[in-house]
Design a protein that fits this description.
Layout: H1 4-9, H2 12-20, E1 47-52, H3 59-68, E2 72-73, E3 83-89, H4 99-109, E4 113-124, H5 132-152, E5 158-164, H6 171-182, E6 192-196, E7 215-218, H7 224-235, E8 239-244, H8 249-259, E9 262-265, H9 273-284, E10 290-293, H10 308-331, E11 346-350, H11 353-357, H12 363-383, E12 389-395, H13 401-404, H14 408-416, H15 426-437, E13 448-451
Parallel strand pairs: 1-2, 1-3, 3-4, 4-5, 5-6, 7-8, 7-10, 8-9, 10-11, 11-12, 12-13
Helix pairs in contact: 7-15, 9-10, 10-12
Length: 459
């Protein structure tokens, strides 16, 4: 279902008429999204302003990173073209006064930003600094980008912070997260914080076709977000196994035929669902490099009116199944007695903004999604010794068949309830899932990334 206000924003004459008549319509800025697979020249043609504090150790590296990806570094404020991106390194800050350099760099450049500009601040994680004042600076950066994202959202612009922990301040660790946040692939993500730790390997890996030779299992892949994730993984070179419930067999098989993948139909409510999935993987694939736990259901009622089976089904599919499937795949071995998920594997699970902020009529759903976030953080620690990353995504309002069935008034409010003033697309979640699945995300684990346009509550 199309968004009327977004359509008006795309038509200059209609947009001008709305403004001339002073109609109280909050016209969103159309978001520029990527339309092709990742490229090693991901930032080609982008005008980027790069800076740092006086004692920054990363400015030269950041300049090299953006130029190697096709970006053009804006030399100064005087005569500068419109900026597509701004990057600022404040990772060496040790005092509150150092925050003034952030103000001095960002503020004058706000008059130069183009629509859909992406701003990334790089700081140090609180556990990677020596004093309480330096830790306060780290936390201050989170508040800064959250507020800046809300100020700039009407222009389709975003702001994020990367907090480097031990070993995270290298080209290998920063390249993937930085390219993701500076590119059109993070169009519906704003006000977010990711911790970046040490990366695997010593050389920056290519951005393009980085999943060639990888095998990915996506649950709930027949439609909506799951189908978008499966498609993006396949576009980047992965062999995809799509899973869904038997009722979705036809849709799933059609998609897997298109993607040259294979389909697996098992109801996650079956007692042996997890073991049956693992048995299938062991029988047909020597390794599973990527697991995306996307399958989920909603059974919405206030707690006072909620049947027990609605509670049970929601917890079993949205929480128990992804945790048990992740644990089982981590523990399983293939026929040649090697681990089914090899070192360097990726696990991505679908949480929700509802699990972070809560929602009336969704005590079961919110409990499951919040529980999944806790499980992801625990699994990330257990898998770290094998260089396997475990992360979660928390989508907000995404334009799917499910949200199209909402009452019109509720749907319209949900679309506007974020800094970007519009709903997201399945592609937005798919791009984030893809990022977490790539070799370039090896320094990011145990994180929850909200793909919600910076929802005004909980983000």
């Amino acid at each position: 279902m199309s968004d009327l206000l977004l359509e008006i924003s795309r038509r200059p004459i209609a947009k001008r008429l709305v403004r001339q008549l002073k109609l109280p319509l909050p016209l969103p800025e159309p978001l520029a999204r990527a339309t092709s697979p990742w490229s090693d020249q991901e930032l080609k043609g982008h005008q980027i302003s790069v800076g740092g504090t006086r004692d920054s150790k990363l400015v030269n590296q950041l300049n090299d990173l953006v130029t190697s990806a096709g970006g053009e570094v804006a030399p100064s404020l005087i005569g500068s073209p419109k900026l597509n991106s701004i990057v600022f390194d404040i990772s060496q800050a040790t005092s509150i006064d150092d925050l003034g350099s952030l103000y001095d760099f960002i503020r004058p450049r706000l008059a130069l930003i183009a629509s859909n500009c992406h701003i990334v601040i790089i700081g140090s994680a609180a556990d990677n600094v020596a004093t309480s004042e330096a830790a306060a600076v780290s936390s201050a950066l989170v508040g800064f980008v959250k507020s800046l994202g809300k100020e700039l959202g009407r222009r389709g612009a975003t702001a994020q912070v990367l907090l480097v922990s031990k070993g995270g301040d290298t080209v290998q660790a920063l390249r993937g997260p930085l390219m993701f946040f500076l590119s059109k692939r993070s169009a519906f993500i704003s006000g977010q914080c990711l911790r970046v730790g040490a990366a695997v390997g010593t050389e920056p890996l290519p951005l393009a076709q980085s999943l060639i030779g990888k095998v990915a299992l996506v649950t709930g892949a027949a439609q909506g977000i799951g189908a978008a994730i499966a498609r993006r993984l396949a576009e980047e070179g992965a062999t995809v196994i799509g899973h869904d419930r038997p009722q979705e067999r036809d849709n799933l098989q059609a998609l897997m035929t298109e993607l040259k993948g294979s389909s697996l139909t098992i109801d996650l409510l079956e007692p042996n669902a997890v073991s049956n999935i693992v048995n299938y993987l062991q029988a047909h694939h020597s390794t599973i490099d990527i697991l995306v736990n996307n399958a989920g259901i909603t059974r919405d009622k206030t707690l006072a009116r909620m049947p027990r089976d609605w509670w049970d089904d929601t917890l079993r599919i949205n929480l128990l199944a992804p945790l048990k499937l992740s644990e089982a795949i981590l523990a399983a071995k293939s026929d040649n007695n090697q681990m089914l998920m090899p070192n360097g594997g990726r696990i991505v699970s679908m949480a929700s903004i509802g699990g972070i902020a809560g929602n009336t009529g969704q005590t079961n759903y919110a409990a499951a999604k919040a529980g999944l976030i806790g499980g992801v953080k625990s699994l990330a620690k257990l898998a770290a010794s094998r260089e396997i990353t475990v992360n979660a995504l928390a989508p907000g309002f995404i334009e799917t068949r499910m949200t199209a069935a909402m009452p019109a008034a509720i749907r319209e409010v949900a679309r506007r309830f974020n800094s970007l003033n519009q709903g997201g697309l399945p592609l937005d979640v798919a791009e984030a899932a893809l990022f977490f699945s790539t070799p370039g995300a090896s320094g990011v684990s145990g994180e929850v990334l909200r793909v919600c346009g910076q929802n005004l509550i909980g983000a």
